[in-house]
Amino acid sequence: MSQSLFSDASQRLEEALAYASISDDAIERLKLPKSSLKVSIPVRMDDGTLRIFPGYRVRYDDTRGPTKGGIRYHQDVSIDEVQSLAFWMTFKCAVANLPFGGGKGGITVNPKELSHFELERLSRGYIDAVADFIGPDVDIPAPDVYTNQMIMGWMVDQYSIIKRQITPAVITGKPLTMGGSLGRDTATAMGAFFTIEATWPKLGLSGSPADTTVAVQGFGNAGAIIAELLFDAGYKVVAVSDSKGGIYRREGLDVPSVRQFKDSTRTLKAVYCEDTVCNIVEHETITNEELLALDVDILAPAALENQITEANARDIKAKAVYELANGPTTPGADEILRQRDVIVFPDILVNAGGVTVSYFEWVQNRQGLYWTLEQVNQRLKQMMVEETERIWAIAQEKGISPRTAAYVHALDRIGDAVQAKGTKDYFTDGR
Ligand code: NAD
Fold first, then answer.
1. Whose CA, among 169, 213, 220, 292, lies 20 to 30 Å from 179?
2. Which of 333, 350, 367 represents a domain boundary (last residue)?
């Protein structure tokens, strides 16, 4: 997966290079990561044995500021995958105009096999191993797949113990009581919502939200919250799914009831709840493949990478795809969707709300002054709408897809930062 992720990202970059005003120096700079660290983490297991887990941290590019990116716990994590994700973060941070470069980290582990005690020892051990590589002005980790607020809490605590000073700004996505930000849990979906609201009316495809049907793949942090935000705004959310499959209801789902039911039972059912009493309403059970092929206006993949591929892209009937997941559409599928006039709003824009509120958390930690939820969401809205409008304008002006436009936008910003330190033209006087 990692190699294809990197070649997918590189392919998108190649397409964008034709439209960006970027120096050869900057292109050269982006070919290799700034620095990569491989570590081994010894963990004393509950049964007394010692296990060693491989861990990684990559700082891809810091031309625009300290590197930023999550830490992933998964059995497939490798240095190549971490490098690919760090490369991706470089562009996402530039799209959102954050003063950050891109980084990423991970441990090769199946966290579901570890006890809570073992997980804590592993997380603290990771920080022991990478403490000299990260820092509030150097590289700032955050949660990613199978890491959460509590793990970030252990990590920031361990870093503070090593440095002998409380250092909340070294990691974002922390618990609120340890310096986390209000609105971080809803940030990714909230950012996506602002992008949808800013662009959907421009497409001239549908009237009011009530006439707009939506299918959401994935019902976790990103998927469940975007479904509820759209429901609250009057959109007709007709289908949602999780790893076990999906539900479809032509008249629309009562999303808050579905969430309440899922939270209490871990199962996804089309229900209508009054207080704690939930009744199942008429609906169809569908597979994830069927969900992707529904005849809806908006499709929001919010689960995994590589969901829309060359094998199913011709089945997609949605008019617009908003990528909340990272990498849900392969480059081959992208081309098929383009030929079929399905407009795709890319992950590096649509899900940038998460890293943006992580940036707000870092700012608050450094100020020692904490914002209200309204302030967080107001600033997030301003950023998302501004960058969405810019990317839309680039796409219109150059006649390119929103994805290529987002890469062009990011490349221009990274190029400007490289330029500011002087490029060949400066040093050779144009010769
Ligand atoms: P999550 O673990 O909270 O939720 C994932 C959801 O996807 C779950 O409902 C799970 O059941 C479902 N799922 C898993 N396998 C599936 C499958 N094969 N088909 C359909 N659904 C499946 O994760 P999340 O935080 O919501 O992240 C989802 C995506 O959004 C990931 O690609 C992640 O990288 C991306 N993302 C998340 C954030 C964030 O802040 N949470 C930020 C940026 C990007």
1. 220
2. 350
- The whole domain housing 98 covers 15-169
Q: Which residue's CA lies nearest to atom 8 of ligand 1? A: 220
**Residue 71 token pair:** 């830490």
- Order across the sheet with 67-74: list the strands: 35-44, 50-61, 101-108, 67-74, 139-143
User: Which pLDDT score, from 0 to 100, does residue 1 have?
Assistant: 44
Q: Which of 149, 219, 242 to mutate to test the pocket of ligand 1 (most atoms within 8 A of CB)?
A: 242
- Asked if residue 197 and residue 110 are part of one domain, the reply reads no
Q: What is the sign of the dihedral through the CA atoms of 140, 143, 147 and 151?
A: positive
SS3 363: helix
pLDDT of residue 31: 87
Same domain, 264 and 125: no
Same domain, 256 and 342: yes
Examine the domain organization and report whether 53 and 90 are in the same domain.
yes
Which of 302, 320, 350 is at the close of a domain?
350
Q: Classify residue 41 as left (phi > 0), alpha (psi -120 to 50) or beta.
A: beta
Q: What is the pLDDT of residue 2?
A: 43
Closest among 146, 8, 180 to 70, alpha carbons compared? 146
For residue 371, give both structure tokens. 């914002």
Q: How far is CA 209 from its chain centroid?
A: 25
Task: Summarize pLDDT for 132-152 with one digit per residue, the tens.
Answer: 999 999 999 999 988 999 999
Nearest-CA residue for ligand 1 atom 29 is 325
Low pLDDT (below 50) residues in the chain: 1-3
Give the residue from 233, 231, 293 showing the smallest Cα distance to 258.
231
Residue with CA at minimum distance from ligand 1 atom 43: 351
Q: Please indicate whether residue 202 is annotated as part of the active site.
A: no
Ligand 1: atom nearest CA of 187 is: 40
Give the SS3 label for residue 422.
coil
Can you give the pTM of this predicted structure? Answer: 0.94
